[in-house]
Design goal:
The structure is a homotetramer of 301-residue chains. Chain A has 301 residues and is an alpha/beta fold. Chain A folds into 2 domains: 11-102, 2-Layer Sandwich (Alpha-Beta Plaits); 107-300, Rossmann fold, CATH 3.40.50. Helix content of chain A is 36%, strand content 28%. In chain A, strands 7-6-5-8-9-10-11 form a 7-stranded mixed sheet. In chain A, strands 2-3-1-4 form a 4-stranded antiparallel sheet, with helices on one face. In chain A, strands 12-13 form a two-stranded antiparallel ribbon. In chain A, helix 2 (34-44) packs antiparallel against helix 3 (75-94), helix 4 runs parallel beside helix 9 (264-287) and helix 8 packs across helix 9. The relative contact order of chain A is 0.12. Residues 1-15 of chain A have low confidence and may be disordered. Chains in contact: A-B, A-C, A-D, B-C, B-D, C-D. The A-C interface holds A 55, 57, 213-217, 228-233, 235, 249-255, 259-261, 296-300 and C 55, 57, 213-217, 228-233, 235, 249-255, 259-261, 296-300. Chains A, B, C, D: Keywords: Hydrolase, One-carbon metabolism, Purine biosynthesis. Chains A, B, C, D: GO terms for molecular function: formyltetrahydrofolate deformylase activity. Chains A, B, C, D: Its EC number is 3.5.1.10. Chains A, B, C, D: The active site is at 246.
Chain lengths: 301, 301, 301, 301
């Protein structure tokens, strides 16, 4: 007897239905009438809202966050008119900031890695499976150990060494490679501290994975510190990179249970599983336009 | 040195701000313009939407579910006019079903229990803390072992024995006690099977907690069966009671890890922690008007 | 139809079989032959080992930790002879420290609380159910709000106010109440910092519950700090109290998921569930003689 | 500034210290003196016990399970003499069954897969990282879609088609390939039902991953069934394959939370993460000689 397995959601086949779908993210000072303004503008353009999540951080006049997924027949053609209406209704009318993304257009994600492959390969494997709406135009590393794996998957790999004096030159080289080619940069255990200047020049969001449950064990060697403190759980934190190291807005966190019998190497190994899972969720949510930054926090809708 | 502890959210103090807030639940066939219709109706009555979650089960013409929390100055006075507008706009205009609840009016919850006290006492304790927006007008049991605990907490207790031949009479007595006094009934490990007739007559939703991860181990003795099968996790399931035992729409589930060293009694003990946690979440969500039934499923917004 | 519920493990009924069972905890420098020495000594006294867990923190000459549960017919009578043999074999022979506890003798646990009742009531309820092998000879609080609940459960309550100048007098009074009456002290959200002198004088282990995932958010106001930092998980930590606040050996930790929509009060409420669960596990393990301290770590067997 | 990353536990470098370590698994009818017999035998051969876990399923005369890790200088040379002593002391003396494995000898694991790659690639990646003490002498599939990935990792791949009439021939071919070459077979989402005859002929343990939280959703299409039932958690189960499909002894299980908004395809995608994690843990524990079968249960020490 043969069991016929339903193949994993062939997203390629899904792209067609996604073709006319888009996400609208809106953020700003809460005022009465915002939901009406958004839904009316969408309705006037004959867009049908598929899902809508709205959150206000205070019942009386807080900050307003909204994510709407809608379907609009002939989105490609209709988009610029819709954007003009949104500009008038939301921007001029209410002083809101907003962003529109077509669901059929995957985000272009550059991945920076060093010698560890667990976060890198997990992202590339999920991309190949169609789990994350992204393309990966390039992987950059200050080492070359992951080059073969990356190229086997058909993805360009660039080796940009970065030691002491070369650091500024390395950042220049990376900025050059990324310019206009990517929508987001993911630091998949990239073991170099990037300068604030780099973050400013790169011009797109940068997501980092930290191998601890922040704000515990800030800085280097978190697994060693966790072992010394005798904690019973270890964790990982995905956050937007900012100039203040380990202080950027947190997108996602998770933990795994450990015991006294786990060595620091065991913590590192078990932590790797949490790191890759947490980073994959953070990157997925970012690419699905679910994450909005507000000060040191994120709102994930 | 004295540490001043912030007292747990004194909801009493919160009731004032809640006074003008309400929840609107809407369900029906999805059609373009529904979000606009809701938000426009609310805006016309000067209601400000605090949060809104909307879900449609298919991108093209599925079923529409929406939960909106809004604030309307002078809700008590304005309510009937708003309801009339909703009736016209949502009911007549779109054939939607909807329900409006004032947040300041807690649900009236009757609890039925037997000899186990873990689910019962956890609910009563959460009610006393102000964690669940409910009042408990009565506890009914076919045993009297929990009577003192219940009455110590200031809650009326009724002993309704129910053995073999008395079953129908017991159901009559319970229906009589509940009639017009409660908005929802919670079976907190009530070890009597209620008839379909009872469920029909009681006229309000009935929430049950089953001591297994349904649909595994349907029926009696789930912990014994779990031990025999050698599972590594045990669970609990809160669901709306229906005439088909253990088949009602699931509201919430959770599990806890067990090992070969746990006896059936250990499973029962560890399971009790999951049962009370799962039931408390389900009752909270129901009382916060977050749960919508649709066939054998629930949508929790 | 009546469902007969198996009553929760009536531990009272279990005490008889536990009568001849004991736990032996052993700790010291690892050397070849330790397991043989322990098992031979037990076998010579006709004790049958029911379970045994042994852990050494390095393969070559680390520290040795062992927990053995055994059954010895007529333990009461045979105990002193066995202890003499253990003293010779383990103490003199190997320089090990060890401790023998009869399983039928529950630990005497004093609970110190303030105004929050969630940890306190959960421990008392578990004690009444027979889930934790302990008796509670007294509850002490610097407030009197929990007095009625405690006394309703048949447990003596002592009100020992402790503000500014009275602090030393309060500690004197507590030491006086505890002296020779208890085996362990549990701080169930007791919001007073105890002096190192107090910890020395009290002479038994003191277990504290901290309302954060230590070492994150050390000190006061962890839920507020967690909200400000925008974490996606909050936690609780049970640890032995030491003179260095929040630095004692960790017994147990756990976390719960939160979102941007949770206010600081929500974090406090959700955190309360984790706090009581974590503290209950830590107290249970301590009372079951599963926890051994070694420097800043605990070994839980 | 360069952050020096501690490379992931280079197990290659660890193999030397592991050279003289072994695991002894013992199972049988509990009788007084068993721990002494084991520890005395080991001590007489100058083996130092590093860790020991023992479990008996009843306090009075149940079944005895023990796992001991020990270090014995010159294990290769000393092994046969030790085994002879164990045969006499444990086998003849107590009627126990036992098994000795050198830690430095990884298990030989054959993996059978179909078209899904998530479990397969995760196992191969963990093997390459040195996380699981195993070698993979071959991957066999009834499809060829995973061939390139497998061979890129340097592992032999055999395509053994298996449709309707070919089924017996396919099983013959697989038995032939496996014979004497492997210590355990892992079905990594191998979508063919293997005959009881195959399981008998293959002569080594076979581990399967089922894509549900058994015993819920036995049989085909568990994600579809889970969607229809509206469960709030989905799971995966790793178990030893037996002739009774989905009924073999469970090694490990886990779950992940889902919502009403997840489609059957989403469940499949999220389930894949649980499947690979659960299977990896089960295979690791098996290869570390932690799992003992007893009837329909497993004891994991």
């Amino acid at each position: 007897m043969t069991i016929v397995e339903t193949p994993m959601a062939a997203r390629g086949a899904d792209l067609d239905p996604l073709r006319d779908q888009a996400v609208l993210l809106v953020q700003g000072q809460d005022r009465p009438g915002l939901v009406r303004a958004v839904s009316t503008t969408l309705a006037e353009h004959r867009a049908n809202i598929i899902s809508l999540d709205q959150y206000t951080d205070h019942a009386n006049g807080g900050r307003f966050f909204q994510r709407a997924v809608f379907r609009l027949e002939g989105l490609d053609v209709a988009r610029s008119a819709l954007e003009e209406s949104l500009r008038v209704a939301l921007g001029e009318g209410f002083g809101l900031t907003w962003r529109l993304s077509a669901l059929a257009t995957p985000k272009r994600v550059a991945i920076l890695a060093s010698t560890s492959d667990h976060c890198l390969l997990d992202l590339l494997w999920r991309q190949r499976r169609g789990e994350i709406p992204m393309t990966v135009p390039m992987v950059i590393s200050n080492h070359s150990v992951v080059a073969d794996d990356v190229r086997f998957l058909g993805i360009p790999f660039f080796h940009v060494p970065s030691s002491g004096p070369d650091k500024a030159a390395a950042e220049d080289r990376i900025v050059e490679l990324l310019a206009d080619n990517v929508d987001v940069v993911v630091l998949a255990r990239y073991m170099q501290i990037l300068s604030g200047d780099f973050l400013a020049r790169v011009g797109v969001p940068v997501i980092n994975i930290h191998h601890s449950f922040l704000p515990a064990f800030i800085g280097a060697g978190p697994y060693r510190k966790a072992k010394e403190r005798g904690v019973k759980l270890i964790g990982a934190t995905a956050h937007y990179a900012t100039e203040d190291l380990d202080e950027g807005p947190i997108i996602e966190q998770d933990v795994v249970r450990v015991t006294h019998a786990d060595t620091a190497a065991d913590l590192q190994r078990r932590g790797a599983d949490v790191e890759r899972a947490v980073l994959a969720r953070a990157v997925t949510w970012h690419c699905e336009d679910r994450v909005m930054r507000h000060g040191r926090e994120t709102v994930v809708l």
